[in-house]
């Protein structure tokens, strides 16, 4: 779990300045995109709000491989210097089984969260989950 802690710190450092993804092209899937760039495109936006879920998920082309809608997508907002007390917008699909372009989401602001990500080469590549600080006391080293 030491890697998880290092990676969590990295995502905080890298995400803190990302209000927009570099060279972001709306509605365009870029095959040359690295896993880290994909993570940033799908999960990092300091200016995200609850009302922008539908627009941002569509513009960023965030869908499952079969073009069905993701059940949930989480956007990491402004990040403090520590890995705790993170604010996120969680976008949840309103109608299960919906397919592109009929994905409709309800956004919710969650504060005081701990984020857990998967890393490759010390860079975040997958948003795993978010926790409340009280949920992190299960022996998992964050």
TrEMBL record:
Single biological process term from Gene Ontology: defense response to Gram-positive bacterium
The keyword Secreted appears for this protein: yes
Pfam families: RnaseA
InterPro entries: RNaseA, RNaseA-like_dom_sf, RNaseA_AS, RNaseA_domain
Leader sequence segment: 1-19
GO cellular component, one term: extracellular region
Keyword Secreted found: yes
Residue ranges of coiled coil: none
Gene3D superfamilies: Ribonuclease A-like domain
Positions of transmembrane segments: none
Key words, A-Z: Disulfide bond, Endonuclease, Hydrolase, Nuclease, Secreted, Signal
PROSITE patterns reported in the protein's UniProt record: RNASE_PANCREATIC (PS00127)
Domain Ribonuclease A-domain span(s) in chain numbering: 32-131
Localisation per UniProt entry: Secreted
An annotated Gene Ontology molecular function: hydrolase activity
SMART domains in UniProt: RNAse_Pc
Recorded family membership: Belongs to the pancreatic ribonuclease family.
Protein name stated in the entry: Ribonuclease A-domain domain-containing protein
Organism of provenance: Maylandia zebra (zebra mbuna)
């Amino acid at each position: 779990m030491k890697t998880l802690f290092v990676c969590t710190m990295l995502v905080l450092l890298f995400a803190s300045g990302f209000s927009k993804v570099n060279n972001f092209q709306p509605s365009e899937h870029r095959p040359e995109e690295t896993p880290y760039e994909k993570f940033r495109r799908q999960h990092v936006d300091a200016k995200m709000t609850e009302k922008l879920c539908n627009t941002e998920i569509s513009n960023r082309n965030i869908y499952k491989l079969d073009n069905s809608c993701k059940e949930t997508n989480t956007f990491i907002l402004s990040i403090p210097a520590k890995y705790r007390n993170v604010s996120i917008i969680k976008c949840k699909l309103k109608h299960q089984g919906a397919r592109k372009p009929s994905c409709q989401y309800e956004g919710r602001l969650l504060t005081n969260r701990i984020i857990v990500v998967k890393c490759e080469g010390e860079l975040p590549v997958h948003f795993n989950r978010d926790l409340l600080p009280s949920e992190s006391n299960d022996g998992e080293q964050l």
